[in-house]
Amino acid sequence: MARDCGRVYLVGAGPGDPGLLTVRALQLLQQPDVVVFDRLVSSQILDLIPAGVSRIDAGKRHGHHAMPQDQINELLVRLARSGRRVVRLKGGDPFIFGRGSEEALYLRRHGIEFEVVPGITAAAACSAYAGVPLTHRGLSRGVRLVTGHFRNDEPIDLDWQALADPQATLVIYMGLANLDRLCQGLLAAGRASSTPAMAIQNGTTAEQRQLTATLGELPRAVRQARLGAPLLVVIGETVALAEQLQWFHPEAIDEEAVHVAPDLSARG
User: Fold this and answer.
1) Is 28 within 8 Å of 264 (Cβ atoms)?
2) Which listed residue (17, 38, 90, 93) is catalytic?
3) CA-based nearest residue to 71, from 57, 85, 84
């Protein structure tokens, strides 16, 4: 590989709150040549990128792609081969429903060096900000993470029996469009209609909204509240603890209270 070839950093930006960025992620954001970012990266995090750094919006949302995945892959290779230091900035964690592994494999096949910087995934952060522990002794012995949106809008095909385990907490990413089908599949597999459930929109940010309902009533409740994407769904007995564990109040956030970024100038 040519000595002057650049490197790509697949960086997890976390769920939205810039205070949840890792030190490594913040360090890399302060020194890139170009940042290729997704829709789920919050504006507060994008504001941490120094002025003058090139930014490329590769944002994807249901039914609309600013840039198809194959073009993103090609773009990363092209930028790296031009000798640039590329930060590929993704919401959450690059390797949890973030297609980071697909991009890493493409980079490897084309001889491009890369580094993966984990981020706090929405399942951990948004549930915590909503007062929901994913595990709790006597209530939940495990956690299952699934996506509610399949590639190319393929029909949802999940192991419903496994997901209906009453001793596990189920977290569904990108489930808004197929919420009725998801809940129906769980109910048909034996998950109780009375199971506590929560929907969280824009978790960890000043725009966070959430509601609790039973599994059987969740789709109707989400429609009535007009919750939108990005939406995370948590289903399981631990959701009932939110009434006691709620601590985050978005309306109390002082917009002037900016998370101060330390000077992390060392290049890695």
Assistant:
1) no
2) 38
3) 57
Amino acid making up residue 258: V
Q: Left if phi > 0, otherwise alpha if psi is -120 to 50, otherwise beta: which for 202? A: left
CATH code 3.30.950.10 region(s) in the chain: 122-244
- Sheet of strand 168-173: strand arrangement: 142-147, 168-173, 231-235, 196-201, 209-214
Instruction: Pick one of 3.50.50.60, 3.40.1010.10, 1.10.260.40, 3.10.20.740 as the CATH number of 7-117.
Output: 3.40.1010.10
Residue 21 has phi, psi (to 5 degrees) of -65, 145
CATH number of this structure's domain 122-244, picked from the four choices 3.40.50.720, 3.40.50.1820, 3.50.50.60, 3.30.950.10: 3.30.950.10
Catalytic residue (one of 47, 57, 60, 70):
60
What predicted TM-score, i.e. pTM, was given to this entire model?
A: 0.89
Rounded Cα distance between 268 and 257, Å, is 29
Q: Give which of 20, 53, 19, 51 is closest to 37, Cα–Cα.
A: 53
The single-letter DSSP state of residue 256 is: T
Active site residue 38: yes
Instruction: Return averaged pLDDT per consecutive 10 residues of the chain, 268 residues in all.
Output: 76 96 97 95 95 90 70 97 97 96 98 98 98 97 92 78 96 95 96 98 96 98 96 98 95 52 50
For residues 251 and 212, give the distance between their C-alpha atoms in angstroms, rounded to a whole number.
Answer: 18
